[in-house]
Amino acid sequence: MGMTMTQKILAAHAGLDEVKAGQLILADLDLVLGNDITSPVAVKEFAKLGIDSVFDKNKVTMVMDHFAPNKDIKAAQQCKLCRDFCTEKDITHFYDVGEMGIEHALLPEKGLVSAGNVVIGADSHTCTYGALGAFSTGVGSTDMACGMASGKAWFKVPSAIKFDLKGSLRKYVSGKDVILHIIGMTGVDGALYRSMEFSGEGLSSLDMSDRLCIANMAIEAGAKNGIFAVDDITLDYIKEHGGAEPVIYEVDSDAVYDEVIEIDLSQIEPTVAFPHLPENTRTFSDIPDIKIDQAVIGSCTNGRLEDLRAAAEILRGRHVAKNVRTIVIPATQQIYLDAMAEGLLKVFIEAGAVVSTPTCGPCLGGHMGILAEGERAVTTTNRNFVGRMGHPESEVYLASPAVAAASAVTGKISSPWEVMGI
Amino acid sequence: MKFTGNIIKYGDNVDTDVIIPARYLNTSDHKELASHCMEDLDTTFVSRVKQGDIITAGNNFGCGSSREHAPIAIKASGISLVIAKSFARIFYRNAINIGLAIVECPEAAENISEGDVVEADLDNGIIRDITTGREFRTEPFPEFIQKIIENGGLMQSVKNGVIK
């Protein structure tokens, strides 16, 4: 029986010719990731094993991004614990303030993930790297600790849903609208335990930032991983960022999928997920006037240079509405520099937005933009659960950078088509 | 593995942000995490939960973040077992890895009511609602999962030589 892309990567990393959905395997890991929230728990678990070193100091990475720069004393203690561990174990890829970025934007940029890799990360959005044709999935701190020690992890081989992409996106529509549209169809557990595999002729119209954004939110449909077929766009990206030699696993022609869902990209409209689940999606024919207090443009989902360009195009020469706090967070230091060189930061500041150092900050209600009781935010982040960005009585609306920028200008949830006169 | 306790019941899609809000993730202290468990969903949980109580819930329990702090907070608050229609996969893995017993049983999750006293025998896959007398069947735990939970989690099992 034919294998899916995910199954082929897992089989190769388990030293097997073939795997089937439901089979338990032990796979070799190419990279083990943690952040300043999850790594401290992993470091304490690692200590229980009583071993001196990690399996490979070049294949473990820690990124201080969630509550960094340290938001309080406890956060400072957690970062210190990670820093001390990485120093003691001589970890090559430890990223602290000044070098760090939001982990899932940073690792592809640094060339740490390549096509065909198996990656685990103690962060649920680790599924982002599927955009590069890798199998990558979120785990907890204990799995991270075991992975750091052994270089291996056990997996139950997933079945898959295939998304056959056709056509190309309209102006001011992006990967974020695609994945919100898909989650609206599948629901937040529609892909539970399974892979979401993206392929089809429509792929050629999606750049890497769109693909990274789509794979990033596979977890929001409950998926184990999201993965894209590898093409020249992938290979060029990996080469440009100095990634390891890609290994391309193509899906077997007789691979069995649980479902095949066709997506016509040209039919997708700007899409917003209403509180308090990412599946509560609506398009603008169905969105009344909703006043907002804050707009956030950033995160592992939408803090890349292409996202900042999309927001800047709308904010250029305009000003954010009175009392709409607009927070722009470039996801990495390199993106920050590139945005500065392109003049985007000037556009944001002149429009009345603030520009922050890279951090996950407001996305998870950590710092740098917390909501008060009754407040509403339009944000390019990935979750709108109760209390996600602050007070349990606040509301989070998920959208693309173009929608967030358009909404910041008008002060209510707005379509970029309307603001830009399309 | 046998558990007996009073039921605390929740609905679908209980996410890790309500199990333990991120504003408390600047610590990994188990007691401190337990003191905020379920805070944004149910402000009465911490004051009414008793050692050994059992949570029942709907679909996709534990969806969202990979924070292991979520099953840790539930376990440290005294909950002995979570029965749900389904679990988000990272939460499922994390719960087993830290030694919190969890089991999927849609029928039990649907039919057991808040406040019922329930007895669960996971070795034999039997969940019995003592209050109503109804009995539900589930898949028995595989032996290696039983061992992980009995040893208090994956790391302790590895250290004790139970898992190699």
Quick take:
The complex is a heterodimer of chains A (422) and B (164). Chain A is of the alpha/beta class.
What is the chain-wise order of helices and strands of chain B? EHHHEHEHEHEEEHH
Question: How much helicity do the residues of chain B have?
Answer: 25-40%
Helix-strand makeup class of chain B: alpha/beta
What's the count of strands of chain B? 7
Strand order of the largest sheet of chain B: 4-3-2-1-5-6-7
End-to-end CA span of chain B: 22 Å
Query: Runs of chain B with pLDDT <50, length 5+?
Result: none
* Estimated helix fraction of chain A: 25-40%
Biggest sheet details of chain B? 7 strands, mixed
- Described by its quaternary structure, the protein is heterodimer
Please report the number of helical segments of chain A.
Answer: 14
DSSP strand count of chain A: 18
Q: Could you give the order of strands across the largest sheet of chain A?
A: 4-3-2-5-6
Largest sheet of chain A: 5 strands, parallel
Distance between the termini of chain A: 49 Å
Provide mean pLDDT of chain A, rounded. Answer: 97
Let me know the average pLDDT of chain B: 94
Strand content of chain A: 15-25%
Low-confidence stretches of chain A: none
> What's the Cα radius of gyration of chain A?
20 Å
Describe, in plain words, how this protein is organized in 3D:
The complex is a heterodimer of chains A (about 425) and B (about 160). Chain A is an alpha/beta fold. A 5-stranded parallel beta sheet of chain A has the order 4-3-2-5-6, with helices on one face. Chain A has a 5-stranded parallel beta sheet with strand order 16-15-14-17-18. In chain A, helix 2 crosses helix 5, helix 6 packs parallel to helix 7 and helix 10 crosses helix 12. The mean pLDDT of chain A is about 95. By secondary structure, chain B is of the alpha/beta class. In chain B, about 30% of the residues lie in helices and about 20% in strands. Chain B is built from 8 helices and 7 strands; from the N terminus they run E-H-H-H-E-H-E-H-E-H-E-E-E-H-H. Chain B has a 7-stranded mixed beta sheet with strand order 4-3-2-1-5-6-7.
